[in-house]
Fold this sequence. Notes:
It comes from Wenjunlia vitaminophila. The protein is an alpha+beta fold. The chain is 40% helix and 14% strand.
Amino acid sequence: MTEPRCHATDDATLGGVHIKYLLHCPRQLWLYSRGYRPEQGNELVAFGEVVDATTHSRRRDVDLGEAKIDWVTTGAVVHETKSSRTPSPAHAAQVRHYCLLLERRGVTVRGGVIHYPLIRRTTDVPWDAEARAEAQTTLSRAHQVINSGSPPPRLPRGGCRGCSYNDYCWGGD
């Protein structure tokens, strides 16, 4: 295998997508970190972008470089919108990652809220010592996967349904 095109060498280069991919499929994170981006043409990704853009249209993204937070309200509460109908541990991990990035920039963060407009639900994400430790552990795991010389094993095929990396992992099978 050729040398990776880009390594995430510091925490500031890791965004929420990196965390989401780590928890969904470490192989997906490994490929993404090397510049493989089939999700750009994926219908599910496009749908998620439309849901995000039309749900809270008066809010403005908070751009932290690689990480883009949907919005932060007064009192430093991180808000993230998901097009999923099913809450996922990866969603909360992504919000905790954003809280960690903001805290490292000197912001006193109170927590986060995940919005699921398709099912009209929200989920609170606490920000405390336990959440901070969890975010740091997840960040370390992401670095381990990214810096590995070979891709992690692929998931069982059923776990790949709808994944834009499906052709890369299963194209020859």
